[in-house]
Amino acid sequence: MRSGPHRPPRRAGSATDRPEAAVSDDPATRHRAAYVDGLRLLAGRELSEAQVRQRLLRRGHGQDAIAEAIARLLTDRAIDDRRAAESIARHESSVRGHGRVRVLRRIEAAGIPRSTARAAADEALSGVDADQLLEAALTRRLRGRDRIADDREFQRLCRYLLGQGFEFDRVMTALRRRR
After folding, report:
1. Number of domains in the chain
2. How far apart, in Å, are the Cα atoms of 152 and each of 140, 159, 168?
3. Could you tell me which residues come within 8 angstroms of residue 167 by beta carbon, excluding any fewer than 6 positions away?
C-alpha cells in the first residue's frame, strides 16, 4: 500500500507497535487494547478461542489482559468455536476439496474440541458426495488420463488421496477402478 498525500500511512497491527497500549501501567488500558486487537483479528475471519488467545499472546499482550479480552469476546459472542469450526469445515470441503479426515484435522488444529469438530464436519459434508469429491481429486491428479500407468503411480496416488483426507476403503476402490 502506498502512502502519500491522499492516503495515510498503513497502521501497524501489533500491540508492541503501539507503546501506549503495551506498556501502560493502567490495567484497563491494557485490557481494552487486547480486546480491540481481538476484535480486529475477528473482523478478518472466524477464529477459535485458542487461535485468538495465541495471536494476542504473539502481539505482546499480558496473560491477564488476554483472559479479560477473551472473556469479553465470548460474552459478546464475537468468539464462537462452533461457528469457527463450521467455517473451517465449509472452506476445507467445498473450496479445497478435502475429505472428512483432513477436515477434522484442520478443525482440531484450530484448538476446537473433537466433539464440536465432528459435528461441524458432519454438517459441512452432509450435502457433499464423498465419492464424487474423491473422483474429482483423482481426475485432477491424473491430468485427463483415464488409467493409472503402473504400481508406482498407484502408490503415489494412494498416498496423495489419503493425505487429502479421504478414507482408505474409498481410495482403494477408486484407484482399483482406474487400474
Report:
1. 3
2. 18, 11, 17
3. 99, 100, 101, 130
Q: What is the rounded distance in angstroms from the CA atom of residue 162 to the CA atom of residue 133?
A: 13
pLDDT tens per residue across span 69-91: 999 999 999 999 999 999 999 99
Question: pLDDT tens-digit profile of 110-144?
Answer: 999 999 999 999 999 998 898 999 999 999 999 98
- Mark whether 27 and 43 lie in a shared domain: yes
Residue 87 lies in a domain: yes
- pTM, full prediction: 0.77
Distance CA(53)–CA(3), nearest Å, equals 32
Residues 47 and 92 in one domain: no
